Amino acid sequence: MKILVTGGLGFIGSHVVAELQNEGFEVVIIDNLSNSTIDVLEGIIAITGIELVFEKIDLRDKSLVVDFFKRHHDINGVIHFAASKAVGESVELPLLYYENNLNTLIYLLQELQKKESANFIFSSSCTVYGQADSLPITESAPIKKAASPYGNTKQIGEEIILDTCKVVPNLNAIALRYFNPIGAHESIRIGELPLGTPQNLVPFITQTAIGKRTQLSVFGDDYPTEDGTCVRDYIHVVDLAKAHVMALTRLINGSNKDNFEVFNIGTGKGSSVLEVIHTFEEVSGKKLNYKIVGRREGDVISAYADTHKANTILKWNAKLNLKDALLSAWKWENK
Ligand code: WQD
């Protein structure tokens, strides 16, 4: 089975490619290298020892997408990661986000709807829930008005897929709503490569610990949580990658009940920012230099997953915990 992974040289995409190859899938990667480097390709090949077809294509060019599917007419599975994903940047550059995250999705679906049958896995995010009314968050929690254009592109993206699947019965799709992916592959050949200043907590922690950054700013400790800092569900990227293989397999086997399904992918456990810091200090043996500053615009107080649906229907469970993930992130920073 030949699978296209768009954004396959990115943080999550590269880990999914490795898991797909380990499961015997033939993989083709498209990436425009806007947020990755070609070294990641070497890293994946070093892990699996299997050759990989990579094409540097910007999916915003519709003619290139059409041409790609003409040349790879035997692809009938797509896992779509290629998108811009920095929440703050999306507020500054909304049109870049709407064009890059939505036009590319539309062009891919336009090609897939031409096929006899097609399987599509969409990289979505718990950001669609905003601040959920109750925790842990289930897939039936209301979708709230997005706090950023980035979050809005995930909500609109899911609606585009739903509306398309309603009228294209041969298209089967699953959206995976990730909580907070962190960590790196045990081989330390691939991991999170934030270009520039990291926006996310864990890469900022590891870069501070290794001395690339002088101090971590903790964005607020006056939230209504146990220790005043925000709570998130931090999931090891390898567990997240395995969920993609399970979801794709579900579609290939025709086990899906509807032709568009949604699953929350998290550990089901919430950890505060200070808990993450203290756990990192424990696993790394490094004292972290941080200071409490003001809140960050758009942060929700607490978000962690109810994983019952993925556990029972996808037969998927997170196997790794926060310590495993933070230790792997630290080893990756030290590679
Ligand atoms: C986590 C917590 C911050 C940095 C976002 C997107 C989500 C996904 C993951 C793409 C928050 C605090 C952070 C720092 C801090 N993105 N923090 N100091 O915001 O939960 O999720 O990234 O797929 O869709 O919404 O992740 O790691 O940015 O923040 O105190 O330097 O860490 O305030 O409470 P977030 P994050």
Topology:
Blueprint: E1 2-6, H1 11-22, E2 26-31, H2 39-48, E3 53-56, H3 62-71, E4 75-80, H4 87-92, H5 94-112, E5 118-125, H6 149-167, E6 171-178, E7 180-182, H7 201-210, E8 216-219, E9 231-232, E10 234-236, H8 237-252, E11 260-265, E12 271-272, H9 273-284, E13 290-293, H10 308-314, H11 322-333
Parallel strand pairs: 1-2, 1-4, 2-3, 4-5, 5-6, 6-11, 7-10, 8-13
Antiparallel strand pairs: 9-12
The structure holds UDP-4-deoxy-4-formamido-beta-L-arabinopyranose.
Describe this protein's structure:
With 335 residues, this protein is of the alpha/beta class. It has a domain at 2-183 and 234-266: Rossmann fold. Helices cover 40% and strands 18% of the residues. It has a seven-stranded parallel β-sheet, with helices on both faces. Strands 7-10 form a two-stranded parallel ribbon. The site of UDP-4-deoxy-4-formamido-beta-L-arabinopyranose (WQD) has 18 residues, from α7 and β8. Pathway: Carbohydrate metabolism; galactose metabolism. Residues 3-266 form the NAD-dependent epimerase/dehydratase domain. It is an enzyme of class 5 (isomerase). Homodimer.
